[in-house]
Amino acid sequence: MANYEVFEYDVLVIGAGGSGLRAVIGAREKGASVGVVTKSLLGKAHTVMAEGGAAAALGNYDKEDNWKVHFRDTMRGGKFLNNWRTVEIFAKEAPDRILELERYGAVFDRTPEGLISQRAFGGHAYRRLAHVGDRTGLELIRTLQDHAVRLGMEVHMETTLTRLLKDGDRIIGAVGYRRGDGSIVIFRGKAVVLATGGWGRMFRYTSNSWESTGDGLVMAYEAGAVLKDVEFMQFHPTGMIWPPGMRGVLVTEGVRGEGGILRNSKGERFMFNHVPEFYRAETAETPEEAARWVEDKKNNRRPPELLPRDVVARAIYKEVKEGRGSEHGGVYLDISHKGEAYIKKKLPSMYDQFLHLGDVDITKQPMEVYPTVHYAMGGVDTEPEECKTSLRGLFACGEVACGLHGANRLGGNSLTDLLVFGRRAGEAAAEFAKTEGHPETPMDQVEEEVELLMRPLQGGDGENPYTIQSELQEAMQEGAMIARTEESLKQTLDKILELQRRANDIRVAGSPAFNPGWNAARDTLYMLISSELIVRAALERKESRGSHWRLDYPNEDEFWSKHNITVRKGENGEPVIEPRPVPEMPEELKKILEEGA
Amino acid sequence: MAKTITLRVFRGDANGGTTQDFRVETFPGMVVLDAIHVIQKEQDPSLACRWNCKAAKCGSCSAEVNGMPRLMCKTRVDALPTDKPIEVFPLKTFPVIKDLVTDVSWNYEVAKKIQGLTLADEGSKEPLRMQQIDVDRVQEFRKCIECFLCQNTCHILRDNERKDVFFGPRQMIRLASLEMHPLDVADRTQFLKEVAGVGACNITKCCTEVCPEHIQITDNGIIPLKERVADTYFDPVRKLLRWVGGRK
Ligand code: SF4
Ligand code: SF4
Ligand code: FES
C-alpha cells in the first residue's frame, strides 16, 4: 500500500471562500485546531466576485428596517420554500455579523453619520446592503482571510479534495491531491465542514469560475447526504454577452440599482410590461417615478428593473425569444444618462470592465446583457441551528448548503449567509470535535478513490475531458437553463447519461503534476453527476416557481408550494428523488409575513 | 475576421525549461487568458496556468506578457503586436512550479507577521464611526487583489532577491491600510523599519506602474509610511504633533 501524507485536525474545513473562512474563525474561537483546504490560492475563491453587498437590517438609512422585514423579503423572494428557521436566524444575526466584520478590519462605505452605508437592491424593501463600491466580495474575503490567519489555521492551498471518508455513517475526513505535484493527501477531521461553494460550470453561460464544478455537492451525495432544492439555479439577469470571451461575466445589479434601464432592440423599456401582479403595488408605474426613486427612495417606488432576479431574467429571455433582442442576442442595459462622473464614482469596476474588455464606454453607450448562471439555491440539506447535514460529523455552510434561499435568492443575501452560517458551522463543528476521536482511516475508500483519480493517466486514446464538458454545457444550456419543459429536460438527461458512459474513457497525457487536463478529468465527473441531479429534480417539479420555470407547467401548483424536493443516493447507487413537506411555520412568523402583504 | 496568432509560452518547472509555440485562432475581444484556454482545450491540456474570475478581480492569472507583468485576463490580444509571437512567461520573482504557475507562498508567509487592525475598545460590539473622507485612502489600498505583479516588478525583490530585507510593495500597502485606518491604535513603525524594511524602497514607482487596480502604491502608501518612520526615529516632536492633531 502506498504511503500518503496525512494531516489531522479537530476541524477540517473544505473550501476557503467566505463561509469556509468564517467557519475557521468560529472553530478557532472555540479552541479547535483547524485545517482548511482550498483548490486555489488563499483569497481567490468565488466570494471575490460578489459585487453588490451584504444584506443586513442595520437600518442605518431606513429606520423602519428590522429583521422582520428582512425575514419577510427573504421568504417572499424564496417563494416560501425556504426553511423558515434558517431565515429567522439569518435575519436576526445578520447585523451582528456585519458589525463584527468591521472590527476584523473591513472598511465599508459610510453614511454621513459615519456608519455603514447601505444600498437598495432587488427584492429588499429597504436600503439594506452594506457595500464597498462594487467590490464588496473582495472586502469580505480579504477581511476574513486576514482575521483567520491572525487566529491561526493551517492552510493547504491548491489542494483538491475529491472524496469524503466515512466510518460507518460518520464523516471523518477526506482524500484528494495537491495540484502542484499531484501527490495524494489524506485529511483527518474529527468534524468536517463542507464550504465548497456552488456549481455553474455545467452551463455555457455562467459567471462561475473553473472551481464551480459541483465537487462538494457530489462528494456529499456520494457519501450518502441528503440534498435539497437542486432544481433551483439562479440566473443572474445581466451577464455580459459580448465579446465571446466575456460571455457570462457578471454585470452587477448595482447598475440597475443606480438607475440602469433595460431596453429591447425597439428601444422599449420592456420591464414595465413584465411586472407580476404580486409585485405591482411596490413597483414604479412610470419611468418618471422610477427615475425619481434613484434619488428619493422614500417617496417613490422602485423601478421594474429591480424586480427579483427570476422575474427580470425571464423577461429578458422572452424579449430575445420574441425577436426583440440585441445584435448579439441579448438586451440593452443603459446607464449612460447618469453621466460620466456619477458612473465612474459609483460603478468603477464595471466601467473598467466594459471599456477594456468589451470595447464599450458605458458612460456613452448601452451594454449588451443576457442572463447567466450565477448561483445554486439548492445544496446539501442543512439543519438551521448548527448546520448539521444528514451525515454525522459533516457540517455545511455557504452556497453548498441549502435552506436559506428557497426557490430564489435575493441579491445581497449570500454574502451575509456566509457569515451567519459559516460561524454557526465552525462553532458547532468545534463543539462536536470535543467529544469525538479520530477513527482509523478507511484505506479501502482511499484506494478506491486513488484508482478513480489515476485512471485517466493510464495511457492510450480516449475521450478529451474538455470535449465532454462542452457537450454537457451545450445540453444544459439548451435544455435545463431558464426555460424548461419535460421534453427538453428528458433530452438533456439522455445526453448526460451518454456523457457519463463516455466519461469512463477519459484519457489525458502528462503526469499528475500541475496538469489542468488531469484535474479536469475528475471535475468532469462531478459536473456530470450534479447535472443529472439538477435535471432529475427539475423534471419532478411540475410547476413554475422562483427560478424554476417550466413552459409546460407555467403556474404555481398547490402541492409543490408546500414541498421541497430531496435527492439522495439509493441502495443501488441510483438517485432517489422525493418530495418533502416544507416545515410548518410558527404563528408569530406567519403574522410577520401577513403584515407585509 | 479570425486571425491566427502565435503564442510563445514558457514550458518547464523548477529545473528549468524552454518555450513552446502554439498557433491560435483569435476571436473578437480575445484576451491572453482566452488564448491559453484554447490551447488547453484543443492542443495541450497539460499546460499549467492559474485563473479564477476571468474578470480582473481575483489576481490569479498574473504572468509576463511580452516582458510586461500583466493579468492575462485583462490583456487584449489585439492590443499586442502580432508580427511576432506573443511571449507568455511566468512571474520572474517567484520560483516556477510548472509552466506559468509560480510559487508565491512567500507573500503569504510575510503577511502573517503583520499585526492586524487593533482597536482601542477591543471586545466591544458597538458599531464603528468613521467618516467617508477618512476612509477613502484606506479603501484605495484595500482594492488590492493580491496579484503580486508589484512584488514581481520591484527590483529589490526581482533583481536583488532581497526578500529577506523587504516585504515588498503589496505588503507596504497592506501596512499602510492598517496604519492609516482612522480607528487603529497599533504602532507599526518599528516593525516597518526593522522587519518589513520600508527603508529599502527607493521610490522608483515601478510597482505603481504595473498595479492593475491603479493603487498609488508609492505616493499614497509607501512615502507616508517612510515619513512615519522618519518622524518616529528622527523627529519625535513632529510625531507628537501628528498624534495631538488627531491625524494618525
Ligand atoms: S517604489 Fe519601492 S516598492 Fe515600488 S518598485 Fe520601487 S523600490 Fe520597489
Ligand atoms: S498592490 Fe496592485 S499590483 Fe500589488 S498585489 Fe495589489 S493589486 Fe497587485
Ligand atoms: S483570472 Fe482573476 S484576475 Fe485574471
Describe what you observe in this structure:
The complex is a heterodimer of chains A (597) and B (248). Chain A folds into 3 domains: 299 residues, FAD/NAD(P)-binding domain; 137 residues, Succinate dehydrogenase/fumarate reductase flavoprotein, catalytic domain (Flavocytochrome C3, Chain A, domain 1); 119 residues, Fumarate reductase/succinate dehydrogenase flavoprotein-like, C-terminal domain (Methane Monooxygenase Hydroxylase, Chain G, domain 1, Up-down Bundle). In chain A, 37% of the residues lie in helices and 18% in strands. Chain A contains 17 helices and 21 strands. In chain A, a hairpin with a 5-residue loop joins strand 8 and strand 9. In chain A, helix 5 packs across helix 16. The longest helix of chain A has 25 residues. Chain B is of the alpha+beta class and 248 residues long. Chain B has 2 domains: 99 residues, Ubiquitin-like (UB roll); 140 residues, Alpha-helical ferredoxin (Fumarate Reductase Iron-sulfur Protein, Chain B, domain 2, Orthogonal Bundle). Chain B has 10 helices and 7 strands. In chain B, a hairpin with a 2-residue loop joins strand 6 and strand 7. In chain B, helix 3 packs antiparallel against helix 6, helix 6 packs across helix 9 and helix 9 crosses helix 10. Classes of the chains: A alpha/beta (597), B alpha+beta (248). The interface between A and B is large, with 70 and 59 residues. The structure holds iron/sulfur cluster (2 copies) and FE2/S2 (inorganic) cluster.
Low-confidence stretches of chain B: none
Second-tier CATH architecture of the largest domain in chain B: Orthogonal Bundle
* Topology pattern of chain B, helix = H, strand = E: EEHEEEEEHHHHHHHHH
Radius of gyration of chain B: 21 Å
The residue fraction in helices of chain B comes out at: 25-40%
Strand content bin of chain B:
5-15%
Radius of gyration of chain A: 23 Å
Strand order of the largest sheet of chain B: 2-1-5-3-4
Tell me the number of structural domains of chain B: 2
**Largest sheet of chain B, described in full?**
5 strands, mixed
Unique ligands: iron/sulfur cluster, FE2/S2 (inorganic) cluster
Biggest interface pair, counts: A-B, 70 and 59 residues
Number of helical regions of chain A: 17
